[in-house]
Design a protein that fits this description.
With 129 residues, the protein is α+β, with helices and mostly antiparallel strands. It has helices at residues 3-29, 92-124, and strands at residues 45-52, 55-63, 69-72, 84-87.
Length: 129
């Protein structure tokens, strides 16, 4: 593997993790959405990453179809006939854990990229007097 390849692989990893953080941010921002009329609340989105010889890529983004949070609030104007209000299936705590994981992976890719860049710089300085 050449240093340029190492830098390219790290760059694809940074790009994929940045996208993952964007999706997680969107999940957190919409965590308190609720069903209003016939419009369902926001559903959590999940990102799947895949790696190969050319780097890391986003293989799939899908909606989590798990059950919505259902809270009994009979006085709410958004309650159904049984007095339940339906909220998004986003769990902010697990999203924050995912965000920390994506952030650490992004930082690891930055460190690998900077190491390869430092090696290239050192190789260029070998012939200097």
């Amino acid at each position: 593997m050449t240093l340029n390849t190492a830098m390219r692989l790290s760059a694809t990893g940074m790009s994929a993790e940045r996208f993952r953080m964007d999706v997680i941010s969107s999940n957190i921002a919409n965590a308190n959405s609720m069903k209003i009329g016939e419009k369902d609340p926001y559903r959590r989105r999940i990102v799947a990453l895949e790696g190969d010889d050319s780097g890391v890529r986003i293989s799939r983004v899908w909606e989590d179809l798990s059950q919505l949070k259902q809270v009994q609030e009979p006085g709410s104007p958004y309650a159904d006939e049984n007095g339940y209000v339906y909220y998004s299936n986003v769990d902010p705590l697990s999203e924050m854990v995912d965000m920390m994981s994506a952030s650490r992976a992004y930082e690891a890719n930055i460190a690998a990229f900077n190491s390869a860049k430092g090696m290239i710089r050192a190789a260029l300085n070998i012939g200097r007097v």
